[in-house]
Structures are given as structure tokens and as C-alpha cells.
Amino acid sequence: MAILLGVDTGGTYTDAVLMRDEDEVLASAKSLTTRHDLAEGIGKAVRVVLENSKVDPKEIGMASLSTTLATNALVEGQGGRIGLIYIGFPEADLAKHGLLDALKGDPFIVLDGGHDHAGEEASKLDLDALSAWLETETGISGYAVASKFATRNPKHELEAMQLIREKTGQPVSASHQLSAKLNGPKRALTALLNARLIGMIDRLITRAEEGLRDLGVTAALMVVRGDGALISADQAREKPIETILSGPAASIVGAQWMTGAQEALVSDIGGTTTDIALLQEGKPKIDPDGARVGPYRTMVEAVAMRTSGLGGDSEVHFVSESLQGGLRLGPKRVLPVSLVAVDAQDLVIKTLEAQLRSPMPNEFDAKFIKAVASANRDGVHPRDEAVLARITDVHPLSEIIRTRIETQSVKRLVERGIVQVAGVTPSDACHTLGLVDSWDAKAARLALELFCRRRKGDGERLARTPEDMAQLILDQMTEQTSLALLETAFGEDPAFSDMDAASLSQHVLLKRGLQSHRGIIALDAALNVPVVGLGASASTYYPAVGKQLGCDMILPEYAGVANALGAVVGRVTMRKSLTVTSPSEGLYRVHTESGPLDFIELEAALTSAEDMLREAVTHDARMAGAGEIEISTLRELRQSDVEARNVFVEGLVTVEAAGRPRIAV
């Protein structure tokens, strides 16, 4: 008999589940995620499941963690200050391929160096220029290195990594260690994002391990990867980018375990995002182009997930472009007013009541700001320091922002995760309507009453009562969730593969079909697969979505803790690939992580690649805690007919090692 613990840290809630032998849920619990110290929220949730199940923590044979921390950080533009070393590429690539946007003003250097497609050195690496740059740039928490054709020969990336570690002692992310595929700028982006997340994920894992040890849980900690597989905590620390979509991937694994669904859309609503993926033949579909989160397309192998900034804590925006006016939710997350009032009730209530007495609405009505105590403040710009110094606890935002320029300072501090802003959210709408009672309903109602005072283009108020305002917000949640599901459906349906899924999801004929239009023309439309609704608020928001889309909406018993369930029932899977090329006739080159190896026979090159990969993935799977490892191998060969001869062009060898984690007894 094995006792298994699954934990998920989301943007709003931390979930915990205890299971016996992967087939019986013993207890589940939720607690608020405590961003200032993630161990507090983890400890509260785990303590409850231990008490409710009467399980001795020493009996737990495996602990596993899934998290939306990396996903949310990229969606919200947060993370540490990093430095990019870009080798052998033209500087114009930085703007052309979105690297400047991803850097967000962080430093970079473009160096001579790099290799050609065959792995031969194109020009010498300028290590002197790198050394001088490292001495001038300070306040950097991690570095990303990307060299031209590094997957064909990583020599220059390895040399740059060694120098950076010697000079700074900071972590370094090399692009060739994160993907074996070509496309240098995309690998550079992946390495950049990995470097930005290292400190954040390390703090999460360290505090999670400490919190579990304090409770007497001695089992080693596993972490869910973005494709739903499990890896060790140390592996997650080294490659935190692989944990993007960790929480959503775990939720899909959990959804399949709970429902047994073979073909379905899985929609998981959290505090910050809604994550939608397709189950095919009972397995999550993997994105062949790499994980996409927010504006970023990475080279991380992960579930084919469409993530949108839409959740229970999405900021509610007033749209004033038309006579009728309207609402838009997200993509940024804010603290619900009802939540911030839990710890600062007197301040929040008095502020909201004072704002209601003002004759004119203000753009900062029902908005508050608070500092994140544990945030890393290194590298804060002097302009922003003055604003940050005024934020000691919870404050009305109007008291902190004194000039328009300071609005940008607050934005930068939010992006760095140093402060949090509170405002009106769908969670406040639910409290106003009495659908939930977790936080301060009075504060929620006052905040929505303030929002009602916004004037539409025709001069009328946006809503007459806070309850009317709350219903408008929930209707907008239904509309945006339905559009997200439809866009995913069109994107995954082969019949529409060459069409714009976003445009199709908003087409007027589809809208009329969903409404079963009857006129001279009869139109009907519906989703043709069920939707599995997950998340703590799924039962609140999703019944209306199922009705609008004309599909079965499945809301499993443990929908609110699906991520934690998925963290428990996943498998360890390690997958690596090597490319084999033929630079000249009779020469076959294997491009390894330490440099190219040449052979005179193709079979010898392919066999050598398989042997190296088998050893590497078996080692990684064992380090991740897998037992009874199964190995599978795939060869993908490209050949061409030249003058009546079949000529080898290129090959990709992939080896996978998989197994369930070893359970400590």
C-alpha cells in the first residue's frame, strides 16, 4: 500500500491531495497561495489533508508538486533581471524575433562567433568582449547564452558558460541544453525565459521542501513538467522553463484519471489564466511547435495548451469605445478587492465608502496596492525606488501614484513581482451575488457599486446596481471562455488547419448557429466533444459556458484539485534527440551536446547516437526517481533521390525512458 501526496501551487489557491495506490482519494484541501512565502500556503493545505485522513506523514512514499508559477510569471511579464549573450547572429535578430520585447530592457551583448550548419566554426568567439561586459553589468540574477548552430556544435556556448560562471557565480542557461532543434532565435528566447525563471522556481521548490519537512514528510519531492511527466526537484531547478504549463499539464492528467475521457476539451480556470487542451485517445496532445505561453513561443516540449489571461482574479476593464460601453476581462491578474479586505478590512471599507461619497468617478476607484515582502528588489531603477518606498502595507492606489510618470513605475514594480495591485475581479462579482463566501462580501459589493458609476458613450451608467454589475461581469466571463474554447476547437480541427481560428470563433454565422437561428436559413452549431471543466470556480462559471456552446459540460467531483491529482498519477518520462548529418559523401556526423562525432558508416552513426541517448535518458530517469524503466527508440531519416541514387540527407534519433516513480517505504 502506497500513500501519495500531490500539491499544486496556483496563482490564487494551493491544493493538496492524499491518495492510496493511485486509485483512492483519501483527502483533499485548498488554501490561499501565500506569495510572500509559498511554504505557508503549502503547509496549510498539506496539514489539513494529513489531519482529515489521519495519515502519519512518515507513511507518505512520494510527494509531487505542480505549479502555475512559471506560466503566470511569463503571462504577467514577471521574473528576475537577466543578461543575454547572443553569439554569431546579427543584432537585428533581437527586434525581428521578439527578443528585445522579451528582454524588457534587460542587458544583452552580441558577440562574434558561432558555427555553420555542419558544426564547423564560422568565426572565433570574442571572449575578451564578453569578459569586459560582465564586469560592467551588475544586478543580474541569471544569464542566457545562445550561439549560432549550437545544436550542431555547442563549443562556443560551453566556453561562454564557463567564463560567466567564473566571473559571476550566477546560473547560466545554454540554448543547446534546452532543445536539440535548429532555429537559433527561438532557442535564444527559450534560454532567456529559462534564465528569468531560475530564481523564482528555485525559491518555490526550496520552500516547498522545507515546508514538507517541517510537517514530517520525508519523501523526495517530484515536480510536474509541461508535458505532464514527472521530474526531480533538482532537474526542475536546472531547467525551470520545462515547468511552464506544469499546472495545466497536471490538470489534464488528473482530468483523464477522474473522467476516463478519451476525446474531450479540458478547460482549467484558475485565478490568473484559463488553460485549454485536447485529450486524444486518453492522452494530452503534445504541441509539435513547442509550448506557447502568452506572447512567447518556446522550444519546450509540452501539452498543446492554449493559455489566455482569463481567470477568477482577472482585472475587470471598462470599455468605453461605443455608445453601449462594455467590459473586458484580463489578461492581467489583480488581487480581488474582497481578498485584500480580509487582511486590511478597515482601510479597504473606509476607502471605498469615501470614494463613493466623491461626486465624480476616478480611474483609481476600488484599486489598492501592497508590497510583496519576499520579493527580490535587486536592480530596481532609482525612479521606481521612490514609489516603492511609499508602499509599506496596503494602500489606496490613489495615495501612491502622484504623477502620470509614477503609473509606469508601478507597472514595472508589478511586472517584477515586487508589488501587487488589487481591483475589481470576477471573484468579487461572485461574492456580490452570494455565489461564494470565502472573503469579504461587503468590500466586493462596495467595489462593484463604484464600478457601476462608469458612464457609457450615451451618458448612462454602466449598471444600476452592484448585482447588475456582477451579472455583467459573469456574462463577460461566459463570453470570453466560450470564445477561448471555440478558438481551441477550430485550431485543433484538421478541417480548419489552414484558417484563422480566432476569426472563425467570432464569425457571425457561428454566433447565429450557436443561437439556433431560424429564419429563411436555419443555422445550428455546437461543440462536438464534451468539455471537462476544472478549477475551484468551474462549477460557478462553466454551466453557462456549456449551455452557450451546446455541449456536455463535465464537472468532476474533484475538479477543484485536478492539478494536485495529476501530480500524483503522472509518470517519469525522459526524452532526448540527436541529429545525424552528412557533411560530405561517406561522412556521417552525430551532433552531440559536447561536440560533433564523425563516422564513415551511417548505421554506426545511428547506433552510436542511440547508445548515447539511451545512456543519457536512463540516467536522467533514474535521477528523477523512476523505477522499472521502459526504453523506446525512434529513427526519422530524410533521404533524397539524386541521379538514380538514394542519398542520406539527415536523421533524427529519439530515445525515451519512462516509468512510474519509485515509492519510498
Give a concise summary.
This protein is α/β, with parallel strands linked by helices and 665 residues long.
How many strands, what sense, and barrel or not for the largest sheet?
6 strands, mixed
What is the gyration radius calculated from CA atoms? 26 Å
- Average per-residue pLDDT, rounded, comes to 90
Adjacency order of strands in the biggest sheet: 3-2-1-4-9-10
Structural class: alpha/beta
Distance between the termini: 9 Å
Strand content range: 25-35%
Key terms for this structure?
665 residues, alpha/beta, six-stranded mixed beta sheet, 22 helices, 29 strands, 25% strand
Please outline the helices and strands.
Blueprint: E1 3-9, E2 13-20, E3 24-32, H1 38-53, E4 60-67, H2 69-76, E5 82-87, H3 92-96, H4 99-103, E6 108-111, H5 127-136, E7 142-147, H6 155-168, E8 172-174, H7 184-214, E9 221-224, E10 230-232, H8 233-238, H9 246-259, E11 264-269, E12 274-280, E13 283-284, E14 292-293, E15 296-297, E16 305-308, E17 314-319, E18 326-333, E19 335-336, H10 337-343, H11 345-357, E20 368-371, H12 382-389, E21 394-396, H13 397-400, H14 404-415, E22 419-423, H15 426-432, H16 441-452, H17 466-492, H18 501-505, H19 508-514, E23 531-534, H20 538-549, E24 553-554, H21 562-569, E25 572-584, E26 587-592, E27 595-599, H22 602-623, E28 630-642, E29 645-659
Parallel strand pairs: 1-4, 4-9, 5-6, 5-7, 7-8, 11-23, 19-22, 23-24
Antiparallel strand pairs: 1-2, 2-3, 9-10, 11-12, 12-13, 12-16, 14-15, 17-18, 20-21, 20-22, 25-26, 25-29, 26-27, 28-29
Helix pairs in contact: 1-7, 2-7, 5-6, 9-21, 10-11, 11-16, 12-14, 15-16, 15-17, 16-17, 17-20
